[in-house]
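Lab notebook: predicted structure, single chain.

Context: the supervisor wants predicted structures on file for every construct in the current expression panel, including those that have not yet been purified. This is the next one on the list. No modifications to the sequence; it matches the entry in the shared construct table.
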Amino acid sequence: MKLVTASEMRELDRQTIEEVGIPGMVLMENAGRAVAEIVRNDFPERVHKGVLVLAGPGNNGGDGFVAARHLAEAGVRVSILVFSKEEAYSGDALTNLAIARRLGLPMAECLSEEAVREHFARFVHAGVIVDALFGTGLAREVAGRFASAIRLVNDASAPVVSVDMPSGISSDTGEVLGCAVTAAVTATFGAMKLGLALHPGAAHAGEVCVVDIGIPRCLVDEMGIRAEFLGEGTVSRLLRPRPETGHKGQFGHLLILAGSRGKSGAATLAALGAIRAGAGLVTVACPEGVQPVLAAKLTEAMTEGLPETGAGTASLSGLERLLWLMDRKRAVAMGPGIGLHEETRELARRFMAEAPLSLVVDADALTAVGQDLALVSASGHARVLTPHPGEMARLLGVTTPEVEADRAEAARTAARGSGAVVVLKGARTIVAAPDGRISVNSSGNPGMAAGGMGDVLTGLLGSLIAQGYGPWDAARLAVFVHGRAGDILAAEKGPFGYLAGEIADTLPAVWRSLDPGKQDISGMRPFVR
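Prediction complete. Output recorded below exactly as produced.
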């Protein structure tokens, strides 16, 4: 499913109205009617208490006026709080405000914080609240009477249906602009907004319904939109069937550089992720002191010992052997648990620059990169970087809060600067390509915030590349399948406490579950009249 920015949505609206010739009033009518239907269908036991509509300036308020009219026509008791003077409205929103007035719908102006508090006190027992304060155009922090209203809405017991966006959420980044409505349902129009897929916006949106209001699908397809919400439909179509006559030599040999003294678990988990992802063969290169431990743990993988430092990490003197080990391999994954010894960092940097294969770079190997993104592209071969937000902050020379404030842009910046596919891990993991494409993952849950999960992902991703998937497709497949395994475990075992090794063991069940015919509606439901 495509994800649009505010500017892309404005352009879709413009083309629909000016070039196709569908009037804006038709789009607004369709939007408001859909909101009214969602209110009645989702909260039938509450609408008898009445519905309170908060109408802000602009077309979002206009959608609210239409919703109020349709609710009133259906016999629902409706009250409207108007947050701007009539002269502030124009176009279709002004027309629908005038219609609501002529029909005698109960309406009160909230032009001050005092007025907001006064009117909310009268409607404290409303059954449902419709949030039509701000839509996709919000670009500054919410303040004054609008902030007061949002706080009162969030304190109320009534469920909230937000119109297009929860008010106070940036439609491009998901950032909370001062304060934001927490909705039970968000009815978004025409296309899914990027800020609804990204946290914290996703947490404020509740259940998302993407409503067709009449924007021709061909316009969306021709827009050249660069972002997608990654769901089962897309992933299933990426997945290649394995031939009946296949053998291990056809499914790739992955080399993993991982582990050090005290961190053999990271190497083990990366190898398990690779094996469970279907690689034909897996070899783990590790410090020679760790090799016997891994050989005992990994029955299905091969191990190779490398010269080690006094700290039990791989030594720079092992570079030649490491390069030799790439013979007949199809891809390399490096970084889990290799440590931060100075020699090991230099080994990682040299290997990254010289390795003539596709390479997944994670964990301690990312620390070795520092801010030298040019190093990543030095070999001319494909690279995939898999940082968590702290590692991304180090790569870009910014703070972790700056990364989290606009995760999509951080991932795009790192991908452009490194020439690599970048996987920015976290809630709603983002995959970014150097050409500007991004994919926001829909799978996964908070129970995956535990040690070792990223190591499994590294092995899984390396395995897919070794099997012949390109870095972009491999990264999207890997993050979705990894998250889906976590979702299966959360449903079976509980919301947290399951193990990274169990994620690897659940991967075969995920492969079996993928349905090529399924649509990409993960995290939302379609709106059906």
